[in-house]
Amino acid sequence: MRGAEQELRAGLKALRLDLSDQQVAQLLDYQALIGKWTKVYNLTAVRDPAEMMTHHLLDSLAAVAPLQRHLQKAGLEQGSRLLDVGSGAGLPGVVIAICCPAVAVTCVDTVAKKAAFIKQAALALKLPNLTGLHARVESIAQPFDVICSRAFASLHDFTQWSVGALAPQGAWMAMKGKYPADELAVLPPNVQVFHVEQLQVPGLDAERCILWMRRKT
Ligand SMILES: C[S@@+](CC[C@H](N)C(=O)[O-])C[C@H]1O[C@@H](n2cnc3c(N)ncnc32)[C@H](O)[C@@H]1O
């Protein structure tokens, strides 16, 4: 087993994620694809493969079980639609598309080469549930059950720029580092936090949390 595969499998075990060999291979191929494209298109500042594993793959994988729990609770295990806002190289959207084949994932980014990379990843990794969209999130009006972001914007801007794309019963899933008390203090009145989860990313000694929000009625 290669070093990267060993580290990935250890991380999956720590996160209690049970993936098939094909999904593990897709995650490794995805990491290799980012490495290849980043040389030319500068998709991400992280270049070192070991750092890419912890800071990108495992960090995104840590959100998968919380997402699956949410979808199960909401009765959305099949046919749910997820929008990853400011997806960049596809984090966490591509990782979610690999781990959750029943979720239709759209990764949106204002930078054309990043959206093109997602389209290429969907083809190369054989992910029919993954779409790359070159747009500003503010322009999206079709409804999504979950809208997520990682390293994108403040909670205020994330929710206000994407509110037009949130299904009536939909939820925002914001991946954050430290608990964002300052951002929560200025949360818009139409948004309500309904759950906060602390995350432990294998191999990463850093604070991580997910904030779940919905429209206040
Ligand atoms: C710091 S990157 C984060 C990328 C990725 N989510 C990650 O965690 O590595 C933020 C991304 O948001 C995109 N972006 C900024 N404003 C946007 C908007 N209004 N709509 C869609 N994408 C946007 C940028 O082009 C950039 O790729």
Automatic annotation (TrEMBL):
Q: What is its main location?
A: cytoplasm
Q: Where does S-adenosyl-L-methionine bind?
A: 86, 91, 137-138, 150
Gene Ontology terms describing biological process? methylation
What Gene3D superfamilies does its record include? Vaccinia Virus protein VP39 (3.40.50.150)
Checking InterPro entries in the record gives: rRNA_ssu_MeTfrase_G, SAM-dependent_MTases_sf
What GO molecular-function term can you cite, just one? methyltransferase activity
Instruction: Give the stretches traversing the membrane.
Output: none
- EC numbers, comma separated: 2.1.1.170
Q: Which domain of life is it from?
A: Bacteria
Query: What subcellular compartments does it reside in?
Result: Cytoplasm
Its UniProt entry gives the catalysed reaction(s) as: guanosine(527) in 16S rRNA + S-adenosyl-L-methionine = N(7)-methylguanosine(527) in 16S rRNA + S-adenosyl-L-homocysteine
Keyword annotations for this protein, in alphabetical order, are:
Cytoplasm, Methyltransferase, rRNA processing, S-adenosyl-L-methionine, Transferase
According to its UniProt entry, what is the function of this protein? Answer: Specifically methylates the N7 position of guanine in position 527 of 16S rRNA.
Q: Would you identify the family this protein belongs to, as annotated?
A: Belongs to the methyltransferase superfamily. RNA methyltransferase RsmG family.
- What is the name listed in the Swiss-Prot or TrEMBL entry for this protein? Ribosomal RNA small subunit methyltransferase G
Tell me the organism: Polaromonas jejuensis
